Amino acid sequence: MFMPSATLATTARRQLQAASHARHCLRTRWIQHHASQRKLPPLVFTFDIDGVLLRGPHTIPAARRALDMLNGANPMGVKIPFILLTNGGGVGEEARRHKLSSQLGVEIHSNQIVQAHTILKSVVHKYADKPVLVLGGRNDVVRKVAEGYGFKKAYTTLDVLAWKPEVWPFHQLTPEERASTKPVDFSQTPISAIFVFHDPRNWALDTQVIVDVIRSGGIIGGSYLDTPPPSEQQPLSHHHQPSGELEGKNKHVELVFCNPDLLWKSDFPQPRLGQGAFREAFQAVYKALVGKTYPYIQYGKPTTATYKFAEKVLKDRLEELQGGRVEQMPTVYMVGDNPESDIAGANGAGWPSILVRTGVYDPAGGPPAHTPTYIAEDVEEAVRWAIEREMGRTATSS
Ligand code: G3P
Ligand code: MG
Known about the structure:
39% of the residues lie in helices and 12% in strands. It is an alpha/beta fold. It folds into 2 domains: 41-116 and 303-397, HAD superfamily/HAD-like (Rossmann fold); 118-298, Rossmann fold (3-Layer(aba) Sandwich), CATH 3.40.50. It has a 6-stranded parallel β-sheet, with helices on both faces. It has a 5-stranded parallel β-sheet with strand order 7-6-8-9-12, with helices on both faces. It has a two-stranded antiparallel sheet with strand order 2-3. The longest helix has 33 residues, at 5-37. The chain is elongated and about 85 Å long. The protein binds SN-glycerol-3-phosphate (G3P) and magnesium ion. Residues 48-51, 86-88, 199, 259, 261, 264, 274, 338 line the site of SN-glycerol-3-phosphate (G3P).
């Protein structure tokens, strides 16, 4: 049936009016319900950083609008709590919060941030007094982060190179790198574990040193023992100690990676290789040398350990805001750009997940490998969609 354009416009206007009226009623009913209950809002957020809020050094414009909404400019009219959960890192949480607060234009608290290595705070008690290697980032920044967590004997691969340049003859320490090193005699310092905190800057040096530590049972420069993996190791008993050898040799050296991302989104058109790519490169070299890959512990999204850790950080934050125990957690919405880490992890944690198109995920490549609850253009649309979804739910349940 032909409808003159004037009629069409009137109908559209009426429909718009009806929709905003419906939204208004929803809002009023919702606020009345929650005002009487004085509860936490029904939803809280966990945001990924790279590809959602930032692209390299640049703030994604939608991020500020989304954070404004969480700050109260939303149909619920209340502040909505959130934390940041990133596979990035390389600096302490305090330094990161300062930088993020200025990049995002809102005050971020250090207990609102979970970086790839933050979870190591929960395992440091096992290694506090033992010599460990910490890898990644610039110069000795991750050593300072590790010391801040409680690692008392944290060494870098630059320390190793300063000790014996022949460990890796293809890199000469820059004055800045040399200034960051600590004098250590690694022939007398059995390394018990290697922690890859952040993306290594010198893959070749770090690969060489990891191989040296693992194959010699912890003593860099010691003879290679090719320690069999734990499953094949016979329990050590005192008479197995080769005489004259240092205590601690022959032990399995723990290898811990904090971020499994093969790719991540910075300000370059194509995603960049991440710490996961370094892990794959190391394992390929190790396998070529020893015939098998080396067992390792993986933290970071999508691991269950990291999502459980993040959930605890979020609950502590809500209890701080609420000033008391939170009996029932609100719905946690995860907003991320990487299906492999953000969406897979959230789905594993039972959280609704929202995939945005501002980062690693490229719709041109087909459906994501892990199915999100919703796909949004950017973080602003993600926040708006989740709020309306929860308002709809609350209104129908009240
Ligand atoms: O190096 C960081 C990168 O792997 C991803 O960071 O914030 O997207 O988890 P993010
Ligand atoms: Mg990301």
